[in-house]
Amino acid sequence: MKNPATTKPVRTSAWKDDAACAAPGIDPDVFHAGERDTEDVETARRVCNTCPVRTACLTAAYEEGDGWGIRAGLTPRQRNAHLRKTERNVARAVTEALDDVTVILRHLYQVHAQPTGDGHLVWTDTRHFINVRNKPYTKHQLAWLAIHGQPSVGHVQRTCDREGCVAETCLADRTTRQRATRTAA
Questions:
Q1: 80: number of Cβ within 10 Å
Q2: Strands 113-115 and 171-172
Q3: pLDDT at position 13
Q4: Over its length of 185 residues, how does the chain's per-residue pLDDT go in tens digits?
Q5: Coil, strand, or helix at residue 143?
Q6: Where do the DSSP E strands lie in 100-154?
Q7: Euclidean distance between the first and final Cα of the chain, in Å?
Q8: Residue 135 carries which DSSP code?
Q9: Contact 96, 90 (CB under 8 A)
């Protein structure tokens, strides 16, 4: 059985392999155009807007302190504006810039899901609901979105007997519960 305590997201640069800008025929120079070269900037943005790894790209740009080029469709000036607006909080800046709430949910999951030593991850925040961008999440909803990057189908329920557990292998939505029922039959 997979150890639930090892299911925290791992940072990696493997996302670069899936980046739209790495596709054949894409001119890498357009991503290093100056902000005044509006044609190249717009070309870069069109590529970025189709990219499946925009969130990872922008997060990396902030973490690497990249002050050059277009990243996730944003110029350095735009990236800095989001960072200032969010008081230099990278997760919030990425969430604001890309309107992608999963970044901040993953950050909260990393902060509040603590290993217990017996293969579980227990939620340490005592609130019943965690409000993120004016939307309330239960700890199980938040964990599901952080782990899977997409909403659950129906309610998320804990499948283990450990109170407060939010480990990936201990959470199930309607689809995974139905799948488990069919497998058991």
A1: 14
A2: unpaired
A3: 67
A4: 334 443 334 445 688 999 999 999 999 999 998 888 899 999 999 999 999 999 999 999 999 998 889 999 999 999 999 999 999 999 999 999 998 888 899 999 999 999 999 999 999 999 999 999 899 999 999 999 999 989 999 999 999 999 999 999 999 999 999 998 888 87
A5: helix
A6: 113-115, 121-123, 130-132, 135-137
A7: 20
A8: E
A9: no
The label of the residue with tokens 């997760």 reads: 91
Cα distance between residue 6 and residue 121, in whole Å: 9
Pairing state of beta strands 121-123 and 113-115? Answer: antiparallel
Contact 112, 125 (CB under 8 A): yes
Spell out the SS3 assignment of 12-71.
Answer: CCHHHHHCHHHCCCCCHHHHHCCCCCHHHHHHHHHHHHCCCCHHHHHHHHHHHCCCCCCE
| CA–centroid distance for 37 within its chain | 31
State how beta strands 121-123 and 135-137 pair: unpaired
Listed in sequence order, the residues at least 6 apart from 114 whose beta carbon sits closer than 8 Å to its beta carbon are 121, 122, 124
- The structure tokens listed for 96 are 């604001």
Distance from C-alpha of 81 to C-alpha of 91, rounded to nearest angstrom:
14
Question: Which residue in the block uniquely carries the two structure tokens 């409000």?
Answer: 131
How many CA atoms are closer than 13 Å to the CA of 21, on its beta-carbon side? 22
Nearest to 140 by CA among 163, 165, 119, 108: 165
- For residue 34, the model assigns a pLDDT of 84
